[in-house]
Amino acid sequence: DEVELALGGTITKFCIVHLPFASRSIEIPYVSASILLDGADVPIFHLVQEIPYEEIRIGMRVEAVWVAPDERVPGMESIAHFRPTGEPDVQIDLFEDAGA
């Protein structure tokens, strides 16, 4: 069944990657993060961009950036990446026990 999720979430884990991404040309290094979308129980893993990698942190609020409407498909490929929202960070202990 199709389920609509929130567009925003919180970074629960992340890593700075210094290897090329197999199917995309992306500037190295880049950040892959575990993102717990608002209202979800299980985080997703996706790219975080539009911020220097040194500034990314656990608890940072992010939002989805979509690919062009004519490129969208039902799946994660429709999300180009996530970017910071500018909202205050979430306290880590609020989602530590949520499987994040």
Essential attributes:
35% strand; mainly beta; five-stranded antiparallel β-sheet; 100 residues
Describe the structure.
The chain is mostly beta strands. It contains no helices and five strands. A five-stranded antiparallel beta sheet has the order 3-2-1-4-5, with no helix packed on it. The two termini are 23 Å apart. 15% of the residues are buried. The model has no long low-confidence stretch (mean pLDDT 88).
Summarize it.
With 100 residues, the chain is mostly beta strands. The chain has strands spanning 8-17, 30-37, 44-48, 61-66, 79-84. A hairpin with a 6-residue loop joins strand 2 (30-37) and strand 3 (44-48).
Shape descriptor reads globular
- Indicate the percent of residues in helices: under 10%
Outline the low-pLDDT stretches. none
- The count of helical stretches stands at 0
Distance between the termini: 23 Å
Strand order of the largest sheet: 3-2-1-4-5
Q: What percentage of amino acids are in beta strands?
A: 35-45%
* Class from helix and strand fractions: mainly beta
Spatial extent as radius of gyration: 13 Å
Q: How many β-strand stretches?
A: 5
Q: What is the N-to-C succession of helices and strands? A: EEEEE
Oligomeric nature of the chains: single chain
Question: What's the main sheet like?
Answer: 5 strands, antiparallel
